[in-house]
Specification:
It is a single chain. This protein is of the alpha+beta class. Mean pLDDT is 84; it is low at 1-7. The chain has helices at residues 2-8, 66-69, 152-173; strands at residues 13-19, 22-27, 31-36, 50-56, 59-65, 82-90, 93-101, 103-109, 115-116, 130-136, 139-144. Strand 1 and strand 2 (22-27) form a beta hairpin. The chain has one domain: CheA-289, Domain 4 (OB fold (Dihydrolipoamide Acetyltransferase, E2P), Beta Barrel). The chain is built from three helices and eleven strands.
Length: 174
């Protein structure tokens, strides 16, 4: 049975999650941790999609709500709402960022030849974030490039949010 399972898990692996009624995926190699919703400390003067930061075992992680980033309406967080902590390169270093999603489905292996690269997709997500679309048994999964979800100005704001969060966290300990 183990051999059969390994054969099914060929090709790049993607974390499959849901926003609204659409299924999305990000490369599992970029995922550092999965967690349930927790208290997010807001940071003033940041874009609405930057919800604030969390303190995860002493590390300050800025949080981005993907619904808001992609122009979807805000939805109250539920017990199924999750945070995906990802690693993204920025300015010669690796930045941790939390992505709020409606729910997490599973990990899907998708051979490269099953990913349809399309120049334009009529979706709620800008096409520059999209690597392609994979047809899975449960329906289509839009594969996102986690590095391109934020532009360089937004990464600067996110890095600033991380630093502000660190200062706020230090102030709470004093």
């Amino acid at each position: 049975m183990e051999m059969t399972r390994r054969k099914l898990m060929t090709g790049p692996r993607y974390l499959n999650f849901v926003l609204g009624d659409e299924s999305y995926g990000i490369e599992i190699k970029k995922v550092k941790e999965l967690m349930g919703m927790t208290t997010i400390t807001p940071i003033p003067q940041t874009p609405p999609f930057i919800r604030g930061f969390i303190n995860l075992r002493g590390q300050i992680i800025p949080i981005v709500d993907l619904r808001l980033k992609f122009g979807l309406p805000f939805r109250e967080y539920t017990k199924r709402t999750s945070i995906i902590v990802v690693e993204v390169p920025f300015g010669g270093e690796t930045l941790l960022m939390g992505l709020v999603v409606d729910s997490i489905r599973d990990v899907a292996s998708v051979p490269d030849d099953k990913v349809n690269r399309v120049p334009y997709i009529n979706a709620k997500v800008h096409s520059e974030y999209i690597i392609g679309v994979a047809n899975l048994e449960g329906g289509a999964m839009v594969i996102l490039d986690v590095v391109k979800i934020l532009n360089s100005d937004e990464f600067v704001q996110l890095k600033g949010a991380e630093e502000t969060g660190a200062l706020q966290a230090q102030g709470e300990r004093v």
